[in-house]
Amino acid sequence: MHVQDFLSEERRGAVLRSLRTDEGTLSRDYLTAARNVLRELVAMPDLIQRLPLERKAGGYTRNLLAGNDAVSIWAIVWGEGSTTCIHDHHCSCCFGVVSGTVTETWYRAIDATRAVPVEEQERQAGYVACMLPSGPNIHRMQNLGAGDAISIHIYGFDHEAHASSIETQYTAVNG
Fold first, then answer.
1. Where is this cross-link: 3'-(S-cysteinyl)-tyrosine (Cys-Tyr) (predicted)?
2. What is the rounded distance in angstroms from the CA atom of residue 153 to the CA atom of residue 110?
3. FRET pair for 3, CA 20 to 30 Å: which of 20, 42, 62, 66?
């Protein structure tokens, strides 16, 4: 059974409709709508934590909550010590932290495949952020804390047409 099956079709449809804007997923209106959806979802940690989310010790797992031809909404479970590659996105990227702490490190590209770290922030439960792919928006997400962390991500892409939201992967170098 998919995680999607635990959210009613009516609820999934309402959320996906609320993310539709005349300008599509590359507009300020869309970011406002996504931010509102995320604020609502991160305010319900008990509901999200009760979902049968796939988990992987030491890694992270993406669980599709809802999606259509314009957007996809994922719950990501961050196992202790898990990390993404350093990356940017080909689409709008919005996320909110439901539980635990996710450390986000921002990078500056020095060429097409290498980047230097410029800032690091701990994102606590309740934190919400949205960005357009107008970048550069290069970052890495990690769970450096004890236990799992859970975040919700809304991406402006069709999950059936693209395997992920990642555009380019970078290698970290010291500045």
1. 93-155
2. 27
3. 20
Q: What is the pLDDT of residues 14-57, one digit of tens each?
A: 777 778 777 777 788 888 999 999 999 999 899 898 899 999 99
Q: Which ranges of 19-152 does DSSP label H, i.e. alpha helix?
A: 28-42, 45-50
Q: Which of 17, 128, 28 is nearest to 70 (CA)?
A: 17
87 annotated as belonging to a binding site for a ligand: yes
Tell me, yes or no, if the pTM score tops 0.85. Answer: yes
pLDDT of residue 27: 80
Q: Is 2 assigned a ligand-binding role in the annotation?
A: no
Instruction: Encode 104-113: b = buried (16+ Cβ within 10 Å), e = exposed.
Output: bbbbebeeee
90 annotated as a binding-site residue: no
Within 10 angstroms of residue 147's Cβ, the number of other Cβ atoms is 11
> Which residue's entry shows tokens 């009760």?
50
In whole angstroms, what separates CA 160 from the centre of its chain? Answer: 17
